[in-house]
Amino acid sequence: MTDNKIERHDCDVLIAGAGPVGQVLALLLAQQGLLVSVVERWEQPYPLPRAVAISHDVLRVVRQLGLGEELAPLLEPWGQDGQRFTLQDASGQTLTESSFILDSESGFPNMSGFSQPDLEQLLERRVHSDPLIVQYRGFSLEALSDDGSGVSATIRPHTGLAPIPDRQPRVVRAAFAVGCDGANSTVRSLLGVEVTDLGFNRDWLVVDVIPHSPPTWLPYACQHLDPARSTTLVPAGPGRRRWEFMIMPSDDQERVDTEENAWRLLKRWEIHPGNAELVRRARYTFRGRWANQWRQGRVVLAGDAAHQMPPFMGQGFNSGIRDAANLAWRLALLVDGKGRESLLDDYAAERCTQVAQIVEQTVLIGQMFCMTDPEECAQRDAGLTSLANLNIQEASQNWLLRGGTLQDDGIGGNLGLQATVGTKTRTALLDEIIAPPSFVLLGRDSDPVDRLSTPMREAWERLGGNSAHFGPGGLTDTEGKFAQWFEQLNASVVLIRPDFQVFGGVLDEQTTDGLVRDLVERVFAHSPGAPTSRGSESSVPRFSGSANYRP
Ligand SMILES: Cc1cc2nc3c(=O)[nH]c(=O)nc-3n(C[C@H](O)[C@H](O)[C@H](O)COP(=O)(O)OP(=O)(O)OC[C@H]3O[C@@H](n4cnc5c(N)ncnc54)[C@H](O)[C@@H]3O)c2cc1C
């Protein structure tokens, strides 16, 4: 970052919303040396439980912020004692069930339970102590204007908060702005972005409980498919349980979201004030929708501002953190003046394509879980019974990224593998050896950087790229997982992005130069020494996006 940039803008990136997505994005950007401003309506992080499941790949992103040690006690890996997810009928009979997978491509359990406020507090402490991040808590973002060379955000003290002398309306100027401002996103409205809505709108009552002692009589995780009231039961982080009760038309709508009603519904599960504490109840509308445009000029959407989905697959929060990881390295390149403008369109293409698949799958599951017609339910139950085993994690194998800053070679778009590796002095997870996250060339048998021509080697260095390899003089594949992975991908060199997504790979090591050249041409505004087939652009991007997004 040059002084010149600081002069022109108050910060490099302005983030609207300090939910988990805004906070993780702020930390990822600061980790790369960017100046960040975060504008948040409320003075404190949202205190009530929401998401309860964190995916392995998302855990990898959060851990890269150096939060591993503090995070570990907040997590409960799903299935660590062989527990299963059960689908049961109205009488409690098991229709089918699935085990949880403890292993994953990221070196962590596939899913872990957590309580969102615990994570948000942890992120808040980290954000608070980061000298590169300025938080404007108690401020609402009200207007944005993009003049092609930067974004000006008008922020005002949030209505209803006690007046504080230095909390005055102001304009914050940034090179880029990101709307991480949740489902009712102001930024999305200011941009005038429409949403694709799958028409799934169901109200459920979400209830979180801390049992006084482990409720051994309860299933660990189950969907109780009672036509009279479908109910979800899942672990919600260490010592916590979550129930989600479908709200029926016959319910007294005035009284449905009351403590009395929550206890009444929990009674069927033998949970009562004598053996548990009620932590939270909330009426929540499950929706399936995504924004049709994720980027306009210098303004981008991420997290719930860009997509919302029912919680049946536990992917809302997780998709938001994937957005943040996908976006952070692009913004870093753009702020640095190196990146191509198209990087943000690629972000939108990659993330929206994957999210749309997840929302569609989750809505299909939601439709199955929300059936109330007894005949349809009987047919559904018969179908489920005939399944030998349900593999609830199988679907995620298809959630590859597509389009965007990826090679279309069957290798690009996969999630980069992480497992333990050995060095001369220690055995550790790959990310602990290659830290902080960067572009990585990973070779099966030899150092891929040795294959690079001088211009590509220089470009790789400019990108801050790292390399590692297995075999003589390199890492040891202690679990044998990397050998298997290279085999499966039919590659001997893979190029992994800082968000742990594979850009592409080659089987013939001699063609590594072409792999790097392709990346360089896709990400750099100017690729030094490399002939560019994609045209040239100014190194300081001037976007053509519409200006003055005022309501
Ligand atoms: C009951 C419930 C259960 C859920 N269960 C799961 C689950 O099991 N798994 C899962 O993955 N997800 C789950 N989710 C979804 C998950 O909580 C969200 O996906 C996640 O919080 C999204 O994070 P975010 O940072 O994008 O948005 P949010 O957490 O909503 O944060 C947005 C922030 O922006 C602020 N803001 C809004 N407008 C402005 C403005 N104009 N100016 C300044 N600040 C503004 C808000 O105050 C808020 O702090 C659940 C959600 C709910 C409500």
How large is the count of helical segments?
13
β-strand amount: 25-35%
Q: What would you report as the Rg, rounded to the nearest angstrom?
A: 24 Å
Largest β sheet strand count, sense and barrel closure: 8 strands, mixed
Point out poorly predicted stretches. Answer: 1-7, 530-551
User: What is the residue-mean pLDDT, rounded to a whole number?
Assistant: 91
Tell me the overall shape: globular
In whole angstroms, how far apart are the ends?
A: 33 Å
Instruction: Report the helical percentage.
Output: 25-40%
What molecules are bound to this protein?
flavin-adenine dinucleotide
Number of strands: 25
Structural class: alpha+beta
Chain-wise SSE layout:
Layout: H1 3-8, E1 11-16, H2 20-31, E2 36-40, E3 53-55, H3 56-71, E4 76-77, E5 84-89, E6 94-99, E7 111-113, H4 116-128, E8 133-137, E9 139-146, E10 151-157, E11 170-179, H5 186-191, E12 195-211, E13 221-225, E14 231-235, E15 241-246, H6 259-267, E16 276-291, E17 295-296, E18 299-301, E19 307-308, H7 316-335, H8 342-369, H9 374-385, E20 420-422, E21 427-429, H10 430-433, E22 440-443, H11 454-462, E23 466-469, H12 481-489, E24 493-496, E25 502-506, H13 512-523
Parallel strand pairs: 1-2, 1-11, 2-8, 5-13, 11-18, 22-23
Antiparallel strand pairs: 3-7, 4-7, 5-6, 9-10, 10-11, 12-15, 12-16, 13-14, 14-15, 16-19, 17-18, 20-21, 22-24, 24-25
Helix pairs in contact: 2-4, 2-7, 3-7, 7-8
